[in-house]
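Researcher: Quick test of sequence recovery. C-alpha cells follow.
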C-alpha cells in the first residue's frame, strides 16, 4: 500500500534545489546559507485499527527525513523544505527569486485518508466502475480491499515585481485523488434486501489556474484577476449487480468553474480607506440522465452563474475612534436544464444583500467599547417553504486593561431572524409544510454571551480563562428543531521555572443540548400535531453531547542548554446521548418503553496520548533525540457496535466493513539525529 520511492514531482523539486545551490554563489559575495537536516527512525506497534491510527498520516517502521534550507544574498533568496521523504505523507516546497524583480514557488504534497483496512465485499472488480457478483452470506469468501484514498497535490506560482508599481502573478495547481471510498444504494422493496454497500472508485483530477495583474502605489490599489478550475472524474457511473439485474449509481460529474474579479482601494481623508471587490463566475457540469426522463435529450447540462459586489469603508478619524461599514451583494442564478421525469425539477437560486456598521472607541480608565449591527437579507427562488429570511445581528463588547497583570473582556451578541413563509400550490404538500420549520431558514432568537480573562501575576506565570454561552430558540417551529444550547469553558496556563523547566496546561469543556419535536404519520394521514393515535403520533428527541479536552506538557532542563526531557499528555473525550420520548405511549412497539428506547452511546469516543522525549544538544550543530509515544483510541456508537456484514431480516442488507472496529492502541519508539548549519 505504501510507496517508499521518491515521486517524480518530488524528484524534480530536489533536482531544482541542487541546481539553485550550484549557481547561487555567482550572485554576490554577501550571502548567508543555513539549514537543518534530520533523520528519525521509528518503530511502531499498533494493536487494533491501523487505518484509524494512520487516518491522515503514515507512521510505520522506517526512517523519516526532514530538510530545511535557506539561502540569502544581496540579489537572491531561496527556501526549501522537505518532510517524510518517500512516505505517503511526504511534502516538499521550494521558493525563491531575485529581490525586487521576481519570486517563484513550487510545492508537492501527499495526503492520505485511510478509512478501513481489510474491508470485505462479495463483489469482484473492486476499484473499477463495474462491480460484478451475486449477494451471498458466506463472508469468508468475500474479496478483501482497503477503504483508502490518497491526494497528490503539486503546483507552482510566479510573481513579477520588476515593473513596479505594476505587478503580475500567476499560479497553477493540480490534485490527483485515487482510491476507494464507502458508498451504498437502496434496493426496491421487491428485492430481498434494502441496502447494499458499494466500494466506490475514486479517480479524480482537479486543475486550477489563476492570473492576477494590478497596480499598487498609495493612495491607490487596483487588480484584475482570473481563476479557472476543472474537475474530471474518470468514472461518471458505477455499475453493480443486485442479484437480479444491473443497477447504476451516478458519481460526481465532470465540472468546471471560472471567475473574473476586480479589487480596488483608495485612501481618503481622516485616515480612511475605501475598498471595492466585484466578481462574476460560472460553474458548469454535465451528466448522463440514464433514461430517467421523457425528454429526447439524454444529457443534463448544469450551469450556475454568480455575481458579487462588496464595498468596505474603514476610518480612523480620531486616535480614540475606529469605524467600519460594509455592503455586500451576492446573486446565485441557476440556469441548468429542467428535467421532466413526470414532475418538472425546480431550479434553486437566491439573492443576498447584507450591510453593517462596526464602531470601537477607547474610554477612560483603560476601557474600550465596541458595538456593531449587521443585516443579512436573503431572497430564495423555488424553495417550497420560505421565500426570504432577514437576519439582524447586534453585538457589543467591553474590554478592560486597568491592571498590568489582568485584562478582561465581556461580550454579547443578539441574532433575530424573521422569515417569509409561503403556501405551496399542492394542497397535500401545504397541509404538511404549515407545521415544519427547517432550521436553516426558520425564525429564531439567539443570545450569545462570552467572557475572557487574562491573568499574568508574575512574568513567568499566565492564565487565560474563557466562557461562552449560546442559546437559540426556534419559537415559531412546530415540527423540527426547537432549541439549541451550548456551553464552552476553557483554561490555558503556562509557567516557567527559571532555568529548570517550562510547564503548560489546558482544559476545554463543551456541552451541547438540542431539542426536536417531530411527528410520525403516513402520507395522506393527519399531519396535525394536535391529534394523536397509534398511527399518527408526536415524539421528541433531546440530544446531549459533552466534550472534554485537556492536556499538560513540561520541558525539564536536566542540563540547561544541553539535556532536555519533554513530557506531554493529551486527552479528548466525547459523550453523546439521545433521549427519545413517544408523546403517545400506546404507539410504542411491543417491549419498548420511553426508557429503553434511549441511546446512551451516540458518537462516544476517547483518545489519549502520552509522549516522553529526551533531547541532547551534542554541539551547536548536532542534536540527538529519543523517545516513546503511546496512543489509545476507543469508539462506541449504536450504529457500529456489534457490526454485522449481513443485516438480519431478509437479510435486509449487505455491508462491507466501513468504519468497523475503529479502536486501537499504539506504541511508538523513535530516535533521531539533527544537523544544523
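Model:
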Amino acid at each position: 500500500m505504501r510507496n517508499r520511492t521518491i515521486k517524480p514531482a518530488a524528484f524534480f523539486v530536489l533536482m531544482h534545489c541542487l541546481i539553485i545551490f550550484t549557481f547561487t554563489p555567482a550572485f554576490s559575495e554577501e550571502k548567508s546559507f543555513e539549514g537543518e537536516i534530520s533523520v528519525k527512525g521509528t518503530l511502531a506497534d499498533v494493536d487494533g485499527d491501523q487505518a484509524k491510527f494512520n487516518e491522515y498520516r503514515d507512521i510505520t517502521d522506517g526512517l523519516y527525513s526532514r530538510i530545511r534550507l535557506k539561502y540569502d544574498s544581496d540579489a537572491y533568496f531561496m527556501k526549501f523544505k522537505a518532510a517524510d521523504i518517500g512516505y505517503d505523507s511526504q511534502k516538499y516546497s521550494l521558493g525563491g527569486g531575485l529581490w525586487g524583480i521576481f519570486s517563484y514557488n513550487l510545492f508537492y504534497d501527499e495526503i492520505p485518508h485511510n478509512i478501513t483496512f481489510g474491508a470485505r465485499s462479495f463483489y469482484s472488480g473492486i476499484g473499477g466502475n463495474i462491480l460484478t457478483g451475486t449477494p451471498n452470506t458466506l463472508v469468508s469468501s468475500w474479496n478483501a480491499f482497503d477503504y483508502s484514498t490518497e491526494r497528490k497535490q503539486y503546483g507552482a506560482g510566479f510573481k513579477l515585481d520588476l515593473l513596479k508599481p505594476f505587478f503580475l502573478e500567476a499560479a497553477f495547481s493540480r490534485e490527483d485523488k485515487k482510491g476507494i471510498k464507502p458508498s451504498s444504494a437502496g434496493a426496491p422493496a421487491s428485492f430481498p434486501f434494502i441496502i447494499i454497500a458499494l466500494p466506490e472508485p475514486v479517480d479524480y483530477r482537479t486543475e486550477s489556474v489563476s492570473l492576477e495583474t494590478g497596480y499598487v502605489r498609495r493612495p491607490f490599489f487596483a487588480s484584475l484577476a482570473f481563476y479557472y478550475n476543472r474537475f474530471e472524474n474518470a468514472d461518471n457511473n458505477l455499475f453493480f449487480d443486485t442479484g437480479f439485474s444491473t443497477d447504476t449509481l451516478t458519481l460526481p460529474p465532470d465540472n468546471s468553474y471560472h471567475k473574473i474579479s476586480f479589487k480596488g482601494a483608495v485612501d481618503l481623508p481622516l485616515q480612511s480607506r475605501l475598498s471595492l471587490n466585484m466578481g462574476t463566475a460560472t460553474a458548469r457540469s454535465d451528466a448522463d440522465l440514464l433514461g430517467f426522463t421523457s425528454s429526447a435529450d439524454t444529457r443534463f447540462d448544469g450551469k450556475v452563474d454568480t455575481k458579487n459586489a462588496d464595498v468596505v469603508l474603514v476610518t480612523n478619524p480620531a486616535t480614540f475612534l475606529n469605524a467600519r461599514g460594509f455592503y455586500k451583494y451576492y446573486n446565485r442564478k441557476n440556469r441548468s436544464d429542467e428535467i421532466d421525469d413526470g414532475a418538472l425539477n425546480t431550479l434553486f437560486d437566491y439573492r443576498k444583500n447584507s450591510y453593517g456598521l462596526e464602531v470601537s472607541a477607547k474610554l477612560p480608565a483603560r476601557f474600550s467599547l465596541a458595538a456593531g449591527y449587521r443585516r443579512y437579507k436573503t431572497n430564495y427562488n423555488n424553495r417550497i417553504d420560505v421565500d426570504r429570511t432577514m437576519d439582524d445581528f447586534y453585538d457589543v463588547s467591553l474590554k478592560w486593561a486597568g491592571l498590568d497583570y489582568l485584562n478582561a473582556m465581556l461580550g454579547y451578541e443578539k441574532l433575530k431572524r424573521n422569515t417569509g413563509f409561503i403556501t405551496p400550490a399542492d394542497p397535500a404538500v401545504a397541509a404538511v409544510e404549515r407545521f415544519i420549520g427547517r432550521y436553516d431558514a426558520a425564525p429564531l432568537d439567539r443570545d450569545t454571551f462570552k467572557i475572557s480573562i487574562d491573568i499574568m501575576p508574575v512574568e513567568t506565570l499566565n492564565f487565560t480563562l474563557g466562557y461562552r454561552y449560546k442559546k437559540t430558540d426556534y419559537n415559531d417551529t412546530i415540527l423540527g428543531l426547537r432549541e439549541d444550547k451550548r456551553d464552552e469553558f476553557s483554561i490555558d496556563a503556562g509557567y516557567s521555572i527559571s532555568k529548570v523547566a517550562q510547564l503548560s496546561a489546558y482544559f476545554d469543556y463543551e456541552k451541547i443540548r438540542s431539542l426536536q419535536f417531530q411527528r410520525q404519520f403516513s402520507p395522506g394521514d393527519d399531519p396535525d400535531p394536535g391529534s394523536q393515535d397509534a398511527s399518527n403520533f408526536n415524539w421528541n428527541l433531546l440530544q446531549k453531547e459533552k466534550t472534554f479536552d485537556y492536556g499538560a506538557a513540561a520541558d525539564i532542563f536536566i542540563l540547561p542548554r544541553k539535556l532536555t526531557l519533554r513530557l506531554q499528555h493529551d486527552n479528548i473525550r466525547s459523550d453523546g446521548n439521545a433521549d427519545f420520548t413517544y408523546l403517545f405511549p400506546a404507539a410504542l412497539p411491543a417491549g419498548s418503553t420511553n426508557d429503553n428506547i434511549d441511546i446512551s452511546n451516540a458518537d462516544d469516543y476517547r483518545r489519549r496520548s502520552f509522549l516522553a522525549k529526551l533531547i541532547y544538544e551534542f554541539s551547536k550543530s548536532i542534536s540527538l533525540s529519543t523517545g516513546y509515544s503511546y496512543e489509545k483510541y476507543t469508539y462506541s456508537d449504536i450504529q457500529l457496535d456489534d457490526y454485522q456484514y449481513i443485516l438480519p431480516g431478509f437479510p435486509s442488507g449487505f455491508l462491507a466493513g466501513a468504519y468497523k472496529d475503529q479502536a486501537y492502541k499504539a506504541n511508538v519508539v523513535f530516535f533521531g539525529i539533527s544537523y544544523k548549519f
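Confidence is low (pLDDT under 50) at residues 1-28.
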